Amino acid sequence: MRLLERAGLAGLHRLDPETAHNAALFALRAGLVPLPGLVTSARLRTQLAGLHLPNPVGLAAGFDKNAVALSPLSRGGFGFLEAGAVTPRPQKGNPRPRLFRLAEDRAIINRFGFNNEGMEAVGRRLAMRPRDAVIGLNLGANKDSADRAEDFARVLAHCGPHLDFATVNVSSPNTEKLRDLQGAEALAGLLAGVMTARDALPKPIPIFLKIAPDLSAAELAEIAEVAQGAGLSGIIATNTTLSRDGLQSPAREQAGGLSGRPLFEKSTRVLAKLAQLTNGELPLIGVGGIGSAEDAYAKIRAGASAVQLYSAMVYEGLSLVERIARGLDRLLERDGFASVAEAVGTQTEDWL
Questions:
Q1: 3.30.70.3550, 3.20.20.70, 3.30.460.10, 3.20.20.140: CATH of 3-351
Q2: What is the pTM of this model?
């Protein structure tokens, strides 16, 4: 980490976490953050559900909810970006404070509640997105919606023409009863509507499903079956957890979803189980607790075709992305892999 970045992080950590988050987005837009540009190599270039990625390290949803910093983020070393979550109508989300640092645990708790400016505002920004980046959108539902399943399809229909992929997010713990949509019957109906909206786009795009880490083995098996039956392009494993096992921080009892280092093992085991359930036939994106090249490599060898991160940047800064991508290149070379794809799933059994 550079001295300037270290000083910047120290300054941000003196602020309320949500204020610091907004300040980080402002700094990116203002050109105050050094950016490495494209990070790639013959070994790092890979495909994910037909998407051509310069490297497999993506930005998870939640950092740039309203797609306000896509241009600088596209030069931040990421192989792909995911904005959102976005709902049909603007939504304030839950009352503040709703974001908490757990520095002792290198973790974050949030209970934002899908706060966003709505699909019309975000759609206008996506129409002006950088065209040389792979950009997706996390689809959400309004808290007071009469038909949450329909909300996902509406956001996709509105924003889809400007996207490379979209993610159905039924796994946030901060919208009441949203996770109920992970049940087989409800999920199948929801996905049918989303896929109909996808097929009506000028250019159909890959659709991913983001799931919770707190699912039983039987629930995971159901989701894998439904996902494959619906024709999804992949699964993102996982969103935040409700578990508080082993935490040290005084903020550990705050309500909301936990992300960061404590989620790594749990989310990787879910990822490996999904790889087993789908026989490696459905692309998986590994998310949860990635803070180093070694973490990203472990997710890939457990079964992920690509990975995403967010929380670790709170503690390590944006330069972490380049460090992970270049470190991943070295790890692949060390172990004799000519590509990311060659390494995918080579240690799935170790996580079961």
A1: 3.20.20.70
A2: 0.97
